[in-house]
């Protein structure tokens, strides 16, 4: 079936609107501040072949990884019937870290021949605790996946429309905050129900055949646009390297290497020479690294390109097995999602700066600055877990300075408002301000990071830090100076401050403070 251009554009925008509405429902019904305030979650629509067709403008590291992981999830789960919902967080199947719980539901529409599978809906959300050795399930020094929380293979949370209470009970028995987890999982289920209803409405309006043909046409359209953009680039091979500060267990840097080959028909990204799998938790599974590469390709080619599986037909990504970008089980991977994907993005963009210097900015902060705090809330006597990623400086851009205090590259979350944070948790925000130091000097200077200081109130707590760019500053480009590294500090009750490593877990007593100063971006062009 051929889809005319007008119908194609209507369907494409309608599908994106469905994904956006799913995200809005999730945000409005979630229990945890990490989802309802920060929107650390993503929604997407797939065709019956598990190819990404449409997504909301949510978190890039979620969306790109889901695109690569969906075939593996469905292969493990087996055929899904009407009303089934799969739950999964296993990184070695679902392509994320354990706190990112993904729900997948098939969409069946009624036709003359009975129920017909037209596609799948997926919702991935970062839950603020899934068990493990530290509150928040992002331990600073984990060395195997089992220390990071409950591993959920693809199993049915809902079967034929009926929740499976045993599965839900098993999940809730292994987390510190079961009421919050149940609320967030129910919010994810609600967003899938809304998405299924909207897709059924589209099938009723245009016909299931037209809807399915529209999926194929959308992918073909994105492929054509990507190939046109590639044809505009100068053919050749371009190499770059960057590094993570360390893996959390030693001070040894972790190099990421890339060789980009541009041809008129294909873009090849080869990560040969990247560090082997490490003992610490900066390991990533392949879908994480692929999502970062996919994001960087969009920056190079066309940010307005519809992000779906059609784009990938023109891209080949080669990742060495057993490397830090394709770790083997039972590797620890929690920081692979938050830190390593950021460095992959920085490395690929550094290579792309040789291809299109007028499009690529200097390095931004290059870290998610993840902080997790947990303990027992003295106000209620119940456990709590607070999790957040903190904004920083953007790299100077070809047409202007880098922005201050912004989430960059692989993250697209909001901050937790101070008032909401202090209501939800026994913590006080002592400082939330721009750093006094500027970003890297240049014709277009880098943006400033922020200072966020949190005081623990009336209880003993554990704090975990997953941060990077504490020793190796964000790079400048084309003569611009490097930015400024971040700093993590703990302050005792007597006011004594000490600097702590970028990755680690620590105990804090009443009235003790954790301070995170996030990196400033690199400069672009000679000052």
Automatic annotation (TrEMBL):
GO terms for biological process: glutathione metabolic process. GO terms for cellular component: cytosol. InterPro entries: Hydantoinase_B, Oxoprolinase-like. Residues 4-527 form the Hydantoinase B/oxoprolinase domain. Pfam families: Hydantoinase_B. This is Hydantoinase B/oxoprolinase family protein. GO terms for molecular function: 5-oxoprolinase (ATP-hydrolyzing) activity.
